[in-house]
């Protein structure tokens, strides 16, 4: 059973529980997550100076795509989520991969109260735009980091271009994602994210855009944060 929940949207949780059976199908409804996973992993590994031996927390881990990838690079990974269905899939997949990941159904705020300053790296990918209070998530992530620890975040910018590509294009025209996956009002401007980080004792160290090459069906990092972007911050001593 899940531990007590807060800062969660039941509608959003239901959306992702409905996707649970597709998490590890690279050609199914979660195909975009499979395509961005190598980019996310590379960003986290480069920004943290390598993952081997580090204690890493993946907030909103879903079915475990990034959590397993980081464990494969030698990290000691904990994955948390409030979706029981996704966590069931994540735990089951460990039987196939043979990797070790500690999966827990717990809110990040509750884990921060339980285990402050416990992690070298915290990742929070494609989660902030799905929760009622993203500021609270950032604050909890900061509490979970050791001084000098790294936070890596991926989210969507609240711009007309992001609305056109991430919602109209990806959900309605190309049908890469189920309709209703995103709400434009919950997209987050980099300036907002930076403010929450500073309020939480974090120093923003870098922003980069995540772009899609439809010809080669691959994502890549580069200038321009108008749609998808990745942010790296460090907890100040």
How would you briefly describe this protein structure?
This protein has 237 residues and is of the alpha/beta class.
SSE order and pairing:
Layout: H1 10-18, H2 31-48, E1 55-59, H3 65-72, E2 76-80, H4 84-97, E3 101-104, H5 108-114, E4 119-125, H6 134-144, E5 145-156, H7 160-173, H8 190-199, E6 202-213, E7 218-222, E8 228-235
Parallel strand pairs: 1-2, 1-4, 2-3, 4-5
Antiparallel strand pairs: 5-8, 6-7, 6-8
Structure notes:
This protein has 237 residues and is an alpha/beta fold. The chain has one domain (10-156, 188-235): Vaccinia Virus protein VP39 (Rossmann fold). The chain contains eight helices and eight strands, in the order H-H-E-H-E-H-E-H-E-H-E-H-H-E-E-E. The chain has helices at residues 10-18, 31-48, 65-72, 84-97, 108-114, 134-144, 160-173, 190-199, and strands at residues 55-59, 76-80, 101-104, 119-125, 145-156, 202-213, 218-222, 228-235. An eight-stranded mixed β-sheet has the order 3-2-1-4-5-8-6-7. Helix 2 (31-48) crosses helix 3, helix 5 runs parallel beside helix 6 and helix 6 (134-144) packs across helix 8 (190-199). The chain is globular. The N and C termini lie far apart (36 Å). The model has no long low-confidence stretch (mean pLDDT 91). It catalyses: a 3-demethylubiquinol + S-adenosyl-L-methionine = a ubiquinol + S-adenosyl-L-homocysteine + H(+); a 3-(all-trans-polyprenyl)benzene-1,2-diol + S-adenosyl-L-methionine = a 2-methoxy-6-(all-trans-polyprenyl)phenol + S-adenosyl-L-homocysteine + H(+). Belongs to the methyltransferase superfamily. UbiG/COQ3 family.
């Amino acid at each position: 059973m899940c531990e007590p929940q807060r800062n969660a949207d039941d509608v959003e949780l239901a959306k992702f529980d409905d996707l649970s059976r597709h998490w590890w199908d690279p050609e199914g409804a979660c195909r975009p997550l499979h395509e961005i996973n190598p980019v996310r992993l590379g960003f986290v590994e480069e920004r943290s100076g390598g993952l081997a031996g580090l204690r890493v927390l993946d907030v909103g881990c879903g079915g475990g795509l990034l959590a397993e990838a980081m464990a494969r690079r030698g990290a000691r990974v904990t994955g948390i989520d409030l979706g029981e269905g996704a966590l069931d899939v994540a735990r089951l997949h460990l039987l196939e991969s043979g990797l070790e990941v500690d999966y827990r159904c717990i809110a990040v705020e509750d884990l921060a109260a339980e285990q402050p300053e416990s992690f070298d790296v915290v990742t929070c990918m494609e989660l902030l735009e799905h929760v009622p209070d993203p500021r609270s998530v950032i604050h909890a992530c900061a509490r979970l980091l050791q001084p000098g620890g790294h936070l890596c975040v991926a989210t969507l910018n609240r711009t007309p271009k992001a609305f056109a590509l991430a919602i109209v294009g990806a959900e309605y025209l190309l049908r890469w994602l189920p309709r209703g996956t995103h709400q434009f009002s919950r997209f987050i401007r980099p300036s907002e994210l930076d403010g929450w980080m500073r309020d939480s004792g974090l120093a923003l160290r870098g922003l980069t855009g995540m772009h899609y090459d439809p010809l080669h069906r691959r994502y890549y990092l580069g200038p321009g944060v108008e749609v998808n972007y990745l942010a790296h911050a460090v907890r100040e001593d």
